[in-house]
Design a protein that fits this description.
- The protein has 382 residues and is mainly α.
- It is 56% helix and 6% strand.
- The strands form 3 sheets. Strands 1-2-3 form a 3-stranded antiparallel beta sheet, with no helix packed on it.
Length: 382
């Protein structure tokens, strides 16, 4: 802040530009450099450099999902609890590791896929195994594409400056949705293929003379892949009913420019009350937006940014443990399905290991019996 000289405030140290003390922090800039409105108590400044801008809001207007600052900083710096994106942007090591892992996954899985495709097994069990291996390699390679996409997005966001000020525009972008879609299909597809492969391996191990029909495997795989793709696409379908279920966040834009609010103190007071009563206590964001629109008697008067299912986190991977009632049934079904696939993989491979140990024991018993018979047999006379 400037210097005090009797009943006046010095705008700049060792300068003749002053203003009365009564005009300090009165919400009106009197000094040419805005020093009389800088560093005032009980204010959140929209710019870190108050010499360039003294725009401010009261602390109770920060982190309420309404942009009061022209640059949106009141919904940014004090509210951003998820540091994963900022850490990725600020760390050259993490950016390099993400790029290296993504490219490596693509190259290694592509190489493995070519070798697997060129290998022609003679048995039906071998052909089934090759089909599942190709699926796993494809989905794992797709995960490499996701890593590379995250790296490219991080570089672009880093070049554009402060990530937090770009947060909601990034999470609501089509590119983030595509990244989330890729991650969902790749991760769930790989798990499904491994689970199905373990089941057929278990069947072939337990029933030695069983011949699995390749057509059956094709049909089963196609059904699982279709379910996986549909599951990934449902949350981003451009249908109002779907969006109302999978919306994970809402930001109000141009809130104070809305004529319904700016022209009426009564409306502003009522909206503040409604916002504190509904928005801060409800996880159903659609209900809040709907209630705000209802009291205006005009549809869609509020300009909002919808954050979809995959934009729930900054890396476009949905947090299924987030408490949100609108898609509780979907979330429970998802967790049950993934848990079931993991249980299937674990149990089938335990059975396979047990069967192999049993087979080795039987082979050992047969070999030991033959050795005893040979030892007991009389030696031939010379």
């Amino acid at each position: 802040m400037g210097m005090f000289t009797q009943a006046h405030f010095s705008c700049v140290p060792e300068s003749y530009e002053t203003c009365p003390l009564s005009k300090l922090c009165d919400g009106k800039v009197d000094c040419s450099n805005g020093a009389d409105e800088a560093e005032c108590p009980a204010r959140f400044y929209c710019s870190l450099n108050t010499s360039e801008s003294t725009e401010w809001v009261t602390p109770n207007k920060t982190c309420d999902n309404i942009k009061h600052c022209s640059n949106g900083r009141d919904e940014c710096d004090p509210c951003n609890s998820d540091g994963s994106a900022n850490l990725l942007l600020s760390s050259y090591f993490l950016l390099s590791f993400t790029a290296f892992s993504g490219v490596s996954m693509i190259i290694l899985n592509l190489r493995g896929g070519i070798r697997c495709y060129n290998n022609t097994p003679s048995t039906s069990a071998g052909k089934v195994d090759r089909l599942f291996c190709l699926q796993v390699l494809f989905f794992d390679g797709s995960m490499g594409l996701y890593n590379c996409g995250v790296m490219v997005a991080a570089l672009i966001l880093r070049a554009n400056g402060n990530y937090c000020l770009q947060d909601e525009s990034w999470r609501s972008s089509i590119f983030c949705q595509l990244l989330g879609l890729t991650f969902s299909i790749a991760s769930h597809g790989s798990l499904s293929a491994i689970a199905l492969m373990s089941v057929f391996r278990c069947i072939n191990c337990v029933r030695v003379h069983h011949k699995t029909k390749l057509k059956t495997v094709f049909i089963t795989s196609a059904i699982l892949i279709a379910i996986n793709v549909i599951n990934a696409l449902i949350p981003i379908l451009p249908l109002v009913a779907i969006q109302n279920i999978y919306r994970t966040d809402v930001f109000f834009k141009n809130f104070l420019d809305n004529p319904f609010i700016s022209s009426s103190y009564v409306n502003m007071t009522w909206l503040n009350h409604l916002h504190e009563t509904y928005y801060s206590n409800k996880t159903d964001l659609y209900t809040t937006v709907r209630d705000l629109n209802i009291i205006t008697s005009k549809d869609n008067i509020f300009d909002v940014i919808d954050i979809g299912y995959y934009g729930n986190t900054r890396l476009c991977v949905h947090n299924v443990f987030k408490e949100q009632q609108s898609y509780l049934i979907y979330k429970l079904s998802y967790l049950i399905t993934v848990s079931l696939l993991l249980v299937i993989v674990t149990l089938t491979y335990l059975i396979i290991v047990r069967q192999q140990l049993e087979s080795r024991r039987k082979v050992g018993d047969i070999g030991g019996g033959m050795n005893r018979q040979n030892a007991a047999a009389p030696s031939p006379r010379p």
